[in-house]
Structure formats: C-alpha cells, structure tokens
UniProtKB/TrEMBL annotation:
The chain crosses the membrane at residues 27-46, 52-69, 76-93, 105-121, 128-149, 161-181, 193-213, 233-254, 333-353, 365-384. GO terms for cellular component: membrane. Keywords: Membrane, Transmembrane, Transmembrane helix. InterPro entries: O-antigen_ligase-rel_domated, WaaL-like. This is Exopolysaccharide production protein, putative. It is a multi-pass membrane protein. Residues 200-349 form the O-antigen ligase-related domain. It comes from Nitratidesulfovibrio vulgaris (strain ATCC 29579 / DSM 644 / CCUG 34227 / NCIMB 8303 / VKM B-1760 / Hildenborough) (Desulfovibrio vulgaris). The keyword Transmembrane helix applies. It is found in: Membrane. Its main location: membrane.
Length: 423
C-alpha cells in the first residue's frame, strides 16, 4: 500500500509539474506573440522592416493557436474561421496564373492568423499593438522633423511622414481612430486618455495629408457607428470627430482647403478622379478578358502598359491625363474583379459577411465599421496589394472570428443562438 501511495504521490507531482510547465510555456508564447505583433505595428508605422515581423507574428500566432485550442473547439473554428482561409488559399493558388499572387496571399494569411490568435487568446488586448502604431504615427512628426527635416515628411505640401504616399498615412491613422471610437470599453481606464490624445492627433494628421478618400470613408464609418450606438456613445464620438476634422481643416493652407471644398461640392469634376478613368477602363478590360478566375493583381502592371500602348491615340484624345506606368487599379472594387475574378470576389464576400453579421449581433462594431470604411475608401483607392492594406482588412477579420470562438468557449452555443435570432 505504501508503494502504491508513493507512486500515486509521484504521479501527482509529475502532473502538477507538467501542468506548470504547460502554463508557463503558454504564457511565454503569448508574451512572444504580443511582442511580435506590437513590433509589427510599430514597424508598420515607420514603414520599415515590416515583413520579418509580419511573418514572425504569423508563425507565432499559428503555434499559439495550436497550443491553446482544444479539440472540442475545432468544430467552432471550422464554422466561424474557415471561410477566410478558403479565399486566402484561392489567392495563394492563383488559378489563372499558378502561384503568381502567392506572396500577396501570404500577407493575407499572416494578417488573418495574427488577428485570429489575438481575438481567441486575448480578446480585449487589441489596444496594445494598435496603440504602438498610433504613437509611432504621432511621434514621427516631431522626431522626423528634427532628424530628417520637413521635406522628407511632406509630399507637395501634404503630410506623409515616412510613407510613400499621404493616403497610406491617412488610412492607417484613421484606422487607429476608428478602433478607439468602436472599442472604447476594451481600453483600460488609465490608458484611455493616452489613446484619446493619440487618436485625436491621428485624425488631425489625416486631414493634413489631404487624402480625401480615407476621410470620407472614416466619416461614413463614424456615421454608421452613430446610427448603431446613438443612445450610448455614438453622438459623443461623432461630435469629437467633426471637431478634430475641423481643427485639421483650419491648419490646412488656403489652396488645400479649396481642394477639399471642391471635392465635396463637385466630386465628379476633380482632376484626380478624371485621371483615374483610363486606369479603371484598363482594369475593366482585363476583367472582361478573364471574368471567372481573374488575372492576379500582380499582372495589372503589365496589362496596363499593354492596354495604354494598344489604345494610345484614343486614350490621349479622350482623357487629358494618361499615366504611363501603374502597378494597381485605383479602385478596390476593380482590383478585386481584375485580380480574383467573379469566383474570387464571391469567396471574399462569403469570407466577410458571416463575420460581420455575427459581430453586429455581438455588438462588436470594429469589423463592421472597418468594412464600411473600406467600401467608401475603395471607390477611388486600392490597398489590397500592399502590406498595410492586408493588415487593415484581414487583421480585424481575424480578431472578429477569434472573439466569436472565444465567446463560444465561455458561453456554449452562443453562435448558434445568434444565427437563429430574428434580425
């Protein structure tokens, strides 16, 4: 009996030791993942060294999901999180030109995996890496002014910081501000004032960039938030955003203010919009040539050059400006149709619609507002071919799916109940 008791005691000690090692290993992996993810957003704000952190965060996220996910949760993951993987696999495979968009699909995969892991393991911790991005954007102006000078931070009088174009700055800055207004309660109380100051500065910076498409997308998303949450905080955030936009407009030069007013009064007559028409025409012609499977986004550069060379006389007679070389369509809608075809477009819609609907049911509004932002912004701009575009769209999608699975762990059958509730 004594030997049996000793064996049992030894077994219990071993089990406790293994449990402690597993607990410690899991939290070490969580810390590594959060560090990699925060580093990714910091590098994204600096526009330097993004890809090593993106791949590192994606691989760490995959290992973390493997460590913490139970077998009983696999069915829930398949129900909620599988559809985006189908679209990403389609992009990586690129049926029309095998493997041509594999690097692009890899960016989508890393962005989605990092969001999925964060939403599942730490559902309310998204404020940490995004605060790193917001602070880097805000601090880049004074630090960059002192280190590299004003000329590097501006593009023809428009603020761009370390990005290649002002629109990239505006999109990322307003993305951070959109997180604040949709996820205010997720931020710890002692950090809310830091987030408020950083997000407010981001809105002003976006106005100073004079990127009108992101600004219109942001105001549309905040308006949707006001409609959905007007009884609680929607009105407060709507007024705050309008005040911040007004401050930014006051800081603009007279010429830039005139451009902004003209874009609102006569949007169809803007020179920038007219110059995009031959680009859209070329993208549409590529879609017509391969409507089902698309052409891959990487093929647009060569297709555009061939199209304007073939139709040079007609295009120059019809349009005042024709770009000689371009790597992407100036429209997310046409970029999706040209690159992925009808089949890929359907997969993209199917990947987002269930997650958006379930997020609305769960009163988690970041993903729905991001989708509204991208729908408006995407009319005249496209970012799906870039690393920032991958993070802006697929990272929130992953977070939303991860949160839904995490809620299912705490409240079994919550997804089934949400799907059966009347609209």
């Amino acid at each position: 009996m004594r030997s049996v008791a000793l064996k049992l005691s030894s077994y219990q000690e071993t089990s406790v030791r293994i449990g402690r090692m597993h607990f410690s290993s899991r939290f070490t992996m969580e810390g590594l993942f959060l560090g990699m993810l925060t580093g990714l957003f910091v590098m994204l704000g600096l526009n330097r060294g993004v890809y090593p952190f993106m791949w590192g965060a994606g691989i760490t996220a995959l290992f973390l999901l493997y460590r913490v996910c139970r077998r009983s949760e696999m069915a829930c993951f398949a129900q909620v999180a599988l559809l985006p993987f189908v679209f990403i696999g389609y992009v990586m495979l690129s049926p029309s030109d095998f493997g041509a968009d594999f690097p692009l699909g890899g960016m989508y995969l890393c962005a989605y995996l990092t969001g999925l892991s964060l939403g599942f393991v730490r559902p309310r911790a998204m404020w940490i890496p995004l605060l790193g991005l917001a602070l880097v954007i805000v601090l880049s102006l004074p630090v960059g002014w002192l280190v590299v000078g004003r000329e590097t931070l501006f593009f023809h009088g428009r603020l761009k910081l370390f990005f290649h174009h002002p629109a990239v700055l505006a999109t990322l800055a307003l993305w951070c501000a959109l997180y604040l207004v949709t996820s205010w309660r997720d931020i710890p109380g002692q950090w809310r004032w830091v987030w408020s100051c950083a997000a407010g500065a981001c809105v002003v910076f976006a106005v100073l960039s004079m990127a009108r498409a992101p600004l219109f997308g942001f105001m549309a998303a905040v308006t949707v938030l006001f409609v959905l949450r007007w009884k609680r905080v929607g009105l407060r955030f709507l007024v705050a955003c309008m005040v911040l936009v007004g401050i930014g407009v006051v800081l603009l030069s007279a010429g830039e203010r005139g451009r902004l007013v003209a874009s609102i009064a006569a949007p169809l007559e803007q020179p920038s919009l007219i110059s995009r028409k031959p680009i859209w025409e070329a993208a549409w012609s590529g879609f017509v040539e391969s409507p089902l499977l698309g052409n891959t986004l990487s093929a647009f550069h060569s297709h555009y050059e061939e199209y304007i060379t073939t139709n040079e006389e007609r295009l120059h007679a019809q349009y005042p400006v024709v770009e000689r070389s371009l790597r992407y369509p100036h429209s997310t809608y046409l970029a999706v149709l040209f690159g992925f075809g009808l089949f890929g477009t359907l997969l993209l819609v199917v990947a987002f619609v269930p997650a958006v609907c379930l997020s609305l049911r769960a009163n988690d509004l970041f993903l729905p507002c991001v989708v509204v932002f991208m729908l408006v912004y995407g009319t005249v701009e496209a970012s799906l071919h870039r690393k920032d575009g991958a993070m802006e769209l697929f990272f929130p999608l992953g977070v939303a799916c991860g949160r839904l699975v995490s809620r299912e762990r705490r409240e079994p059958d919550v997804i089934a109940k949400a799907q059966t509730l009347p609209s």
